[in-house]
Amino acid sequence: MGVYHAGSRAVQDRVGVREQADHVGRSVGRGIREIAAAFLELQPLLVVGAAAEGRVWASPLTGSPGFVRATGPHRVSVAGGPLPSDPLATAYATPGTPVGTIALDPRTRRRMRLNGRLAPTARGFAIEADQVFSNCPKYLQKRQSYEFVPDRRPGEPRRTAQLTDDQAGFVTAADTFFLATVHEGGADASHRGGNPGFVRVDSPGELSWRDYPGNSMFLTLGNLAADPRAGLLFLDWTTGTALQLTGEAHTEYGEDRRVRFTVREVIETPSALPLRWSAPEYSPANPDPAG
């Protein structure tokens, strides 16, 4: 599988960055290097993006460091699995499901993405990698430490067709979210960050955010050009609440690129993650969201 498909190429050409994209794309491979394997084994959080029952979702998985680890030159194994109510539960149990993953470490402002195909195992699942690469720390907020909260238990998930007022406040206060996208035969999970207010709630059924300059690969916008389905994941880094949205997104090209997301379904799970992180130090690269 090549690094780029027609959707990404179309966006690169429109923005005029094909040469830069080709240069960056040379860092993408199938192999999991020793430094990448060591990074994965330190992480308590993995975000997975995939399609299930026609919709695309981003799903959080947590565990003690080591719950995600490289078990072969092109294979990652994940111990455990999602909550029974997670919208990707059926996808995790289906061999060959295309998945995108991102492991993000706020302590070091490092992130790693691995895309491939899922294989259920006795202890959880494995992923056979098609693409493995790292991203720069741009727009990634630093959180110095985290702790496990052993007595925290997930609450009853709340499903709605649109955002409630409280959920809209959750979104506009966020400094980070994860974005799952797909294309024919593949999936991807990426990170978006900025100062609070960088995601705008235009109505209970529509969000938008400015697409800040990045690595010129345009994997996410390329996927959306090929398939508009998308899933968003917002986390409360203190209480562990997870807000998952699914719908469709498209890119508006103007003075600034803006992505507009139409909400189809919302799942809010209180205390979904047993992690409590320290307060953020915002990235110096974050633009003023009012600008």
From TrEMBL:
<dbReference type="InterPro" id="IPR012349">
    <property type="entry name" value="Split_barrel_FMN-bd"/>
</dbReference>
<feature type="domain" description="Pyridoxamine 5'-phosphate oxidase N-terminal">
    <location>
        <begin position="164"/>
        <end position="261"/>
    </location>
</feature>
<dbReference type="InterPro" id="IPR011576">
    <property type="entry name" value="Pyridox_Oxase_N"/>
</dbReference>
<protein>
    <submittedName>
        <fullName>Pyridoxamine 5-phosphate oxidase</fullName>
    </submittedName>
</protein>
<dbReference type="Pfam" id="PF01243">
    <property type="entry name" value="PNPOx_N"/>
</dbReference>
